[in-house]
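Hi R.,

Here are the chain sequences for the assembly we discussed:
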Amino acid sequence: MSQNTTPAELARVRRKPSRARYDTAAVYAVLDAAPLCHVATVRRDRPIVLPMAFGRIGDVLVLHGSPVAGLFRDAAADSPVCVTATLLDALVLARSARNHSMNYRSVVVHGEAVRVTEPDRVMAGLRAVVEHVTPGRWAQIREPTGTELRETALWQVAIGAAAAGPGQSSTASVKIRSGSTLDPDADRAWPVWAGQIPARLTFGPPVEADDLPPGTPFPGYLRAL
Amino acid sequence: MSQNTTPAELARVRRKPSRARYDTAAVYAVLDAAPLCHVATVRRDRPIVLPMAFGRIGDVLVLHGSPVAGLFRDAAADSPVCVTATLLDALVLARSARNHSMNYRSVVVHGEAVRVTEPDRVMAGLRAVVEHVTPGRWAQIREPTGTELRETALWQVAIGAAAAGPGQSSTASVKIRSGSTLDPDADRAWPVWAGQIPARLTFGPPVEADDLPPGTPFPGYLRAL
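And here is the predicted structure of the full complex:
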């Protein structure tokens, strides 16, 4: 990997640093609430970013992709990745275009992606990915076979310097914008509604698989969604 | 920019190409439905990806950032960017971990970001960004001042080869996963609920700004959210 720019330099939030936090609990809270992440890598000097399923085991992110996916052909060679997970919390509607904003929580992890191959660790990683969006489900589904574990493409990325292995580096930061509009006094009499429109991801009524045997109960852990 | 890999090569969807579409209408439909995008660039050989507000004017994406944001210090030098917008449509819950999936729509645009500086074009770009999430609002808000236009940091990225300027390149593709679980026959009797949990971004009751004059009407175009 290049040593020209360290992850610590990249991760230092330049814009509106007052919105930035680096503490572990805040990073984990945003990661755990995000259903998917966006993973960027560099392919022959060009950036590429794709959405990806993920999970977390302590201070390690587990990314789930395909071995033939373009993204991970680089990461398999231990090249740097940037993983970003974003939650939109509100549209912030001000009196002027300039002061329109969004409330959001976003985590950015700079590190290296390392392929997970040891069967027990692949099993633990798959479990983390499944439990990330549907906690409680792992105990109910069919356990992976040995062949499935060998064919499963998982990568891990350390979250923060303390989690990075020998020769690796990692930084993680979270940026949060919350609260209402910030219009200057001169704009407040402008005759337009101003405020926030809260936003969140919601889950609708479940749709049974066509081949589901009649009477199969809908599990409680999914009601929590 | 590097000529080692062309955007066309990067954009060719390698994994599950049956899910990929390249037609313009499908690309625009996903872009227009996504409230934000993730923009990746390369900074000294490392990737960086951040969430960003955006809009669309015909075959051009308009990205709204800050001139001091780390991301755009590269793009101002006409370096390559990758813009990805993703909509999560459902969790797909199968009988095995291997067959768990998500339904989603995702657009990936590979191109170059070009700074927009001409005041009329900055005005049009700002309008596109505001109207992207709240169509109808531009006509009601205070028009930007000349100073605001000069201070506004907008970049544009062509969507597809036909929109790329001289010396530029761009490709855009959309990938869609829809439908139900794909369990093999041998798994169908496994005693677990299987199917889809639809997901979507929803907007909650509006929260008025503290300084909103009493009686300011809530506009109809926001009810449509």
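Chain B has a mean pLDDT of 89. The two ends of chain B are 40 Å apart (CA to CA).

Let me know if anything looks off.

Best,
T.
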